[in-house]
Fold this protein.
Amino acid sequence: MITWNNLDTLEAFKNLSKAERVNIAEAMSGENGAERVKTYSTPMAEGLAYNYAAKQVDDKLLEDLQKLADEAQLTEKFEALYNGEVINTGEKRMVLHHLTRGQLGEAVNADGTDKRAFYKEQQQKIADFANKVHAGEITNAAGEKFTTVVQIGIGGSDLGPRAMYLALENWAKKNDTFKMEAKFISNVDPDDAAAVLYGIDVAHSIFILVSKSGTTLETLTNESFVKDALKNAGLDASKHMIAVTSETSPLAKSDDYLAAFFMDDYIGGRYSSTSAVGGAVLSLAFGPEVFERFLNGAAEEDRLGTEKDIRKNPAMLDALIGVYERNVLGYPSTAVLPYSQALSRFPAHLQQLDMESNGKCVNRFGERLDYVTGPVIFGEPGTNGQHSFYQLLHQGTDIIPLQFVGFKNNQMNTDVVIQGSTSQQKLCANVAAQIVAFACGKKDENRNKNFEGGRPSSIIIGEQLNPETLGALLSHFENKVMFQGFVWNVNSFDQEGVQLGKVLAKRVLAHETDGALKVLSDLMNI
C-alpha cells in the first residue's frame, strides 16, 4: 500500500542527514578520481550514460539514498502513476504523459476510451496530415506547398516544442529529413508575433494554434494577430490554420481550422512535448518518422525509471542526489549546462519543467512544509556560459550543483582542425576540464586566483544528439522531476502559482482596479 509522507518524517532521510560528508576535491584527485569516473556511471537509454563521479557521494551514501528511495516508495508511486491512479491531487486528475510514448503497465481507461489508443490515434492523424502537406495534397489556396510552420502557444505549448525543434533542426538538415522551417510565437508582446510574421511568407505558412482550453489569453491574442496578417495579405485564415486542443474546447469543431488534433487534461503543458502539442510541429518540420524515433527514445528511458535499484535507474539516482544537495547540503539552485549548441533552449524548457512542477511550499494535502523543495534552475550552452556566469560558479559564495550534457560527435559532421584539434575536440576538452576544475580547484597564494573546488557536477554523455537520444534526455529530466516531487511529497502536476497574475491582469484590462494595482495600471497607460 502506498503512503504519502513528508520527507522529514522518513527514517532514511534522518539517517542521510547524519551521513559523513564526501570531500569531492580529494575524491576526484589522482587515481581515486580516475576510478570514480569509471565506476560512478549509470547507463541510460540510447547509448547515453549518467556519470556522477564529481558528485558528493560514496558507496555508503548511495546505500543511504537507496534506503530513502525504498522508504519513499518511489518505484511504487511511479507504477501507480503509469497505471492511471489520480496522482495530480490538486486537480483530481491522472498523469499520463508517459502513455504518449509507450505502455509501461496496465491499460488506462478514462472518458470512455483506452488512453494509449487515444494518443496513438492522434499521433497517426497528425502523421497522415503531415504526409499530405509534404506531398502537396494539402496546399494553400493557390495550390502551392506550405514551406513554413508556425506554432502559436505559450508556456509548455512553446518552450518544450521549441527546444525540441532547435535540438533536431541541424540534424534533420544533415540527414535529409528537414521538411519545413518552424517558427514560434508565444509572448503577448506584439513585437514577438510581428517579428515572426515579418520574416516569413505567410502565403506559404501553416499556423498551429495550441490551447487546451481554447481560452488562453496570450494564445488567442496572437491568433488574432496572425489572422489579421493573413486577411491583410488577401488570404483565408481557415485555409492556413490547424488547432491542437481538447475535444471539448470551442476550437475542436470550428470551421476556422483545416484540422484539429486533440490532447487532454491528463497531460500538463510542460510534459506535452511527446503529445500532439509537440507532435504536430515536429512531424510537419521533420516528418512523422522522426517524431516516432523521438518517442521511442523517451519510451526506452521511461522503462529504466521502473528499476528499484537506483544504480540502474539514472533518473531516480539523479533525483535523489539532487534531494541530498538541496535538503542536506543546502544548495539553492542548479545550473544546466549543455555542451551542444543544438540544446540552446533546453535549459529554458527544464526551468519550466522543474520550477513549475516542484516550486511548492505545501504538500499534496495542502499542509505547509518545514523543508525546502525545488531549486532555482538556470543555464546556457557551453562554452558560451564559461564566458558569462562561470565566474560565480567557480568562485562565488554559493555552491551551485552543475548538470552538464555533452556529446562525442557533432550533428553536422562538419569540422576543422585548428592548432592540432577539431572544434568538437575543443568543446569536449572544455567540458572535461570544467568538471575537474569545479571539483578539485587550484591552490594559489593569491586569493583572487585561488579556486577552492568542492563544487559538485554530473554529466550525461552520448555519442550524438539525434531523435532517440533527445527523447531519452527529455524523459530523464521529466522523471527526475517526478521522483523529486514524490520524495518532497508535493504535487508536481499542477501549477496554481501561475494563476493569480492572470486573474489580476484580466481585472486590469476590465478597468476593475483600485489601490496599487490602479496606480500601476495608470503608469503603464492601460
